[in-house]
Design a protein that fits this description.
By secondary structure, the protein is of the alpha/beta class. The chain folds into 2 domains: about 400 residues, Alkaline Phosphatase, subunit A, CATH 3.40.720; about 100 residues, Gyrase A, domain 2 (2-Layer Sandwich). It contains 20 helices and 22 strands. Strand 7, helix 6 and strand 8 form a beta-alpha-beta unit. It starts with about 40 loop residues before the first strand and ends in a 15-residue tail after the last helix.
Amino acid sequence: MTSHLFPARLFPASVGLLLALPGIVRPVVAADPVPAAPALVVVITIDQFRGDYLDRFRAHFVPGGFRLLLEQGANFTDCRYRHAVTKTAAGHAVVLTGVHANQHGIINNAWVDRATMKRVNCVEDDTVRLLGRAEEKGGARPPAALAPKGASPWRLLATTVGDELKIARGGRSKVIGLSSKDRSAILLAGKLADAAYWMDKGRLVTSTHYMKELPAWVRAFNDADRVDAFFGRTWDRLLPAATYEALVGPDDAPGEAAEFGMGRTFPKGVNGGADKITPAFYDAFENSPFKSEVLADFARAVVENENLGGRGVTDVLCLSFSVNDTVGHSYGPDSHEVMDITLRSDRLLADFLKFLDARVGLKNCTIIFTADHGVAPLPERVQGLNPGVSAGRVDNVRLLKTCESALDRAFGPAGEGRRWLVVDESSLLFQRDVLEEKGVVQAAAEKIVREALLTIDFVAAAYTRTEMEEGRLTGEYAEATRLSFHAARSGDLYYQMKPYWVDRKTGTNHGTPYTYDVQVPLVWYGAGVKSGTYAQRVGVDDIAPTLARLLGLPAPPLSQGRSLF
């Protein structure tokens, strides 16, 4: 059975056939010939920006930011991810590859490696080292033995539009990724990028995968201590409190987190609870909108110092703002904090677009705006509005105990101090040595665990590795699960929580195939784009082939989406 959220699709890109399949209608935005390539493509993602935010907060946007994109761009109002595990890395990896985790291999931000049973980060790379950390101030480097592990796209198994552009233009085009998070910058930029920069303790860093040393201008940017200048600043609302209350309710709501010394209400001091700069200050800074201001300043510095859009060939800048995700996790989508950081993001975007217009000319740019995932409402809010709705917080201890007990009853105890299973977010992995010692066939153990999972009140569906490998998935979330499953990297069982169930003790989370997680904005603006509002359902995987066609490039070879115009 095909999910109503994610209908099956075939994309024979080689013949350019536009198929109309159940549940999804492909818009033809323009029938004009492909225009001249833009000087600069800017791909902007905001981490954890739900699809409804543009409409919900639109009345309070300023001219030149989101309003400019919405009024003069192509706004696809029903854009969705088709995969189940809607996490930051998995989403960013889709945007410019046009494929999902079953192809690009980035199944989550981190996962338990099946060979070592140790958790691995999606971009961590111990063959390279970081450049630009605080201990390297002034250009000094720590001894190689003490240098922290670097990061690179080596685990990304698909190529991006940026990679195709580098190949087609003989390396002359520049492709650069920027973000607060390493995974966001790296996975957007691709395997052949000139650089990816991300933030580490208030500094912009990269790795030796991209260069031997930081450019002098990046070192100068870091040495200016821009982040430290925010110590002691106060984060307060841009607009009167009553404006926020009218849209999202009270400032202090049950279930909100109170982390980083920020508290649950406005105003918020950004000092880490101390009268001098300590590591706690950087934690507080990470949960404030000021982090995005520093990243936007760096984006301007990148455009200027790399002369992006001014070199007679198309360049690509990938810019991902991550602090919205941190704030959203803590306070939820119906909070004063999320509303305020959304309004601040709008004003930040307006300033950046004004800069691009003066530097490159917006008529020479193509801007793409989207997000990597949405987020669930706080379960306490859902219950407060309707106590009869199933909502709550996942008890992973109970989940594991339920599954372990079922295996013990079926096959006998795993052994003193030992367990059958390892929990890896919404996946479970078998301890294969225990299966071998007990003489248990994994497929039989999978069935036991699957049945146990389905007895838990917050579990909506469960799928086994055997079912996923053999393509025997059924049910509402089968297709979404298939797209998130990579045989070499995924776990042995995947369980889908019911709507409004969150696996955090406070705050909220994302990572499901439900509308609040999968529906994100998609707005195109500028060169090669015909303005309008398009209500047909489209996918984030359509961005890559659409951009490739606009640039006169072949789509990334594994791309599964299709061109929107």
